[in-house]
């Protein structure tokens, strides 16, 4: 029972961390262009065209 | 273009080649101010589809003066450019040089998709809650007892609160909306079931009870939200793809003031009495009368006439026609809101009937389903009260009945099939606006086609090229390359180098033809009467239509050309397939009877009505509807738009006028008309799968409900039963994906030969 007292909060905290991380990624526009993101890793970044 | 092989979405690039590129004034009008002198322009670039495209475009645009930055969005096939200053950098021209067509799209399509991000957030929250609660529930089912079980229940109750408030909010709002308007939809039983299950579980938890349904209520929301999100993503994808097509309506026009100054004004600010300058290649934004200039007009989108019309000062013009050859100055006779275009929109709104009255299968089922479920639960409660007198037990069992019947499978049964069907159609280049369109399409028994631009391409083709002297044809092709008249384009397609003399001093005479000189000779390509001014009059009229297009040398006719309007590829096959599917096919056109008769004969269409006004098309469709038919309308012109609205369901090609594309339920992006029978086949198959899925859901209920009424359902059984029925309907829906590979193969490799089945255009 005592182990539960800290294991459950720990589990929930880690889960919530993942959730917040996902929501943050969503807010910051990382899901706006999934196809583009997949292709962009092929582009050499020798200029700052990504600044927009 | 430096790209990989063209794929389905490359078909988006299919556009009327004569559609004018947006002018810099138009781009400026459509741009957004970002503060300071910084402005942002969003362009749709349908041909982008790999990393090389992204880099080429971003580098080239970034190097332009005054451009702060450019960013390509590959998913939406758009590029947004930030630039400074008053003058628009040559964005479209730069993209054009790289091989990418760029279009402006409607400004209201701007901004982020709020519903989608709300849905995704709701899925995330519900998924988090469902996962954690399910973990705790498994411990309870495995035998957690006493204080431990209470603790787990309390933690579950706490986690469920944000999930219900945030993710459930979507369903509560929708259910409330439906109830307030006296309707029933699938969200009503969901909202009632979920909230009652939560309330009962909370009561159980407070009283140290054994059974709590927190997991059921939250995982129910999670599953249903996934279905809803998929549905939304599919529709959104179709909408963006349609929005990415070239705008065919002008956004503004150059106004010539009395004092001689010129202003580019948005269409909404143009008033009657103003003078407009319309360059060759532009569309006429409002109704007007020509004051100066002569030209040829392409009226195919407006009236359905396939032959360009010559106009001179004094002639009236309708909004939406395309000015082909010469600059025009016109006096505005009606503001945009009173113009032909706006009149079409009004006619369309007045005609809208069939689809507004249509109720989706899911709504019809739930209108029956919800009362039955709620009544069953209530009767169960009364029955247990009467039998045992234990109200707590009666309530618990009644709520178990509600949960087990909660339409998880039913809520997924319809949208999942429609999402899979829409995906199949998307791969074949057909965009579906919403799920109800698929249901309506499955029910049709009559298909009505427009002629110009739908059954035919609306572009003439030279048919007697083989009988024309190759040297003359080469000269004609060189001359024709200087004009955007459709006949010229048809001739220019035969350009070869055959040692022809170099042309000098090429000039275009609007409404007449093209004149050029070579060493010692004057060549004219155009109307017989103008080009062959020395020809004997006996020759006149030998080639009927178009007054005869000829090439002359020093006034003597040396070659004559005959044109036909080519039918869309596979038009004949498509018509036959529709007939095989038990659909009767008709043709309505604004064009003259002769031209219609030819097309009807070639495509084997039994009945047609020529020379119809837009309202005539609507009346014809309404008459068919009154006679008990369900009518499919396929059309592209402005004059078809009201008919598209009046029909039970409608199709438009990607080359259709903007409002036609917006009015249609389906937009097909490829040239082939086979899209229509393909979509009909898929929609019928989808209808069949939907009925199967509903049957599965009902059988599941028939088995599960008696168990629940007898009081044997525990949270464990509820969780297993609900998941199993959901998986069953999803699996059944996916069968559509695997179905009939041969139909797809036919649609992706259209038989171009049959498109050459051209017809003699006679007007």
UniProtKB/TrEMBL annotation, chain A:
Matching InterPro entries: Cyt_oxidase_maturation_cbb3 (IPR004714)
Gene designation per UniProt: ccoS
Protein's name in the database: Cbb3-type cytochrome oxidase assembly protein CcoS
Keywords associated with the record: Membrane, Transmembrane, Transmembrane helix
Membrane-crossing segments per the record: 6-26
Automatic annotation (TrEMBL), chain B:
Cited Gene3D superfamilies: 3.30.70.100, Calcium-transporting ATPase, cytoplasmic domain N (3.40.1110.10), Calcium-transporting ATPase, cytoplasmic transduction domain A (2.70.150.10), HAD superfamily/HAD-like (3.40.50.1000)
CDD domains: HMA, P-type_ATPase_FixI-like
Single annotated GO MF: metal ion binding
UniProt main location, coarse: membrane
Region (Disordered) location: 744-763
GO cellular component: plasma membrane
One BP annotation, GO: metal ion transport
Span of domain HMA: 39-103
Top-level taxon: Bacteria
Record's keyword terms, sorted: ATP-binding, Cell membrane, Membrane, Metal-binding, Nucleotide-binding, Translocase, Transmembrane, Transmembrane helix
Localization of this protein: Cell membrane; Membrane
Matching InterPro entries: ATPase_P-typ_cyto_dom_N, ATPase_P-typ_P_site, ATPase_P-typ_TM_dom_sf, ATPase_P-typ_transduc_dom_A_sf, ATPase_P-type_domA, HAD-like_sf, HAD_sf, Heavy-metal-associated_CS
Transmembrane segments: 119-139, 151-172, 367-387, 393-417, 693-710, 716-734
Protein family: Belongs to the cation transport ATPase (P-type) (TC 3.A.3) family. Type IB subfamily.
The name this protein goes by in its record: Nitrogen fixation protein FixI
Lineage: Bacteria, Pseudomonadati, Pseudomonadota, Alphaproteobacteria, Hyphomicrobiales
